[in-house]
Amino acid sequence: MKHNLAALRKEYSLQQLTSDSVHPDPLVQFEIWLNEAIDAQVNEPTAMTLATAGSDGHPSARVVLLKDVTEKGLSFFTNYESKKGRQLNENPSAAIVFFWPELERQVRFEGITEKLPSGESDEYFDSRPAGSKAGAWASRQSSKIVSRKVLENEVVKIVSRFQNENIPRPPCWGGYRLIPGVVEFWQGRPDRLHDRIEYEISHGIWAISRLSP
């Protein structure tokens, strides 16, 4: 390595986090932090690492974009036949992590996923640019291809197929919602004594605890 990774250090000192300062509902608290991240113009505030595992237990993670947050949970969209789609079909448990280094903050979610109703997937798909719609049809996500030209040729075919009409949502493409059971808010603090506030739900009630860093 060109750099000594073990010697890299950053002190966190922007803010603090206490169990008394957070909202009783973690999804409301997440909206507060997400809005602050957007207002602060952090890079890609809706980017989140989604971790999944299939029936074989082998984990897989990738960055996807959050597209909605409600009292029910967090929503994102993908190809149902992608690796994450296949894993979620085999095992609906998943985890999500947001990291906003500009604010020295991290949020973790653990929970169960469910497919969004087709109407919600249709509504979001209709809002996408035409190029993204064509790409959703053309890409057999996660499958191997011999070259980019194969993908580009498929896009040309799709554009020709739906010429002069709205491109509909592919049957293999749609949304998921992660319904959280555990949510953790992390605020960087000096000397690695970070603030960690965890929410855990039991019988519909969120319990709030402080975790050791």
General description of the model:
With 213 residues, the protein is of the alpha+beta class. It has one domain (10-125, 172-211): Electron Transport, Fmn-binding Protein, Chain A (Pnp Oxidase, Chain A). 26% of the residues lie in helices and 33% in strands. It contains 5 helices and 9 strands, in the order αββββαββαααβββ. Strands 1, 2, 3, 4, 5, 6, 7, 8 and 9 form a 9-stranded antiparallel sheet that branches. Helix 4 (130-138) crosses helix 5. The longest helix is centred in the first third of the chain and has 14 residues, at 26-39. The chain is globular and about 60 Å long. The mean pLDDT is 96.
Whole-angstrom Rg: 20 Å
Number of helices: 5
Mean pLDDT: 96
**SSE run:** HEEEEHEEHHHEEE
State the shape: globular
Indicate how many domains the architecture comprises.
1
Label the CATH architecture.
Roll
Percentage of residues in helical conformation: 25-40%
Question: What would the keywords be for this entry?
Answer:
9-stranded antiparallel β-sheet, 5 helices, single chain, alpha+beta
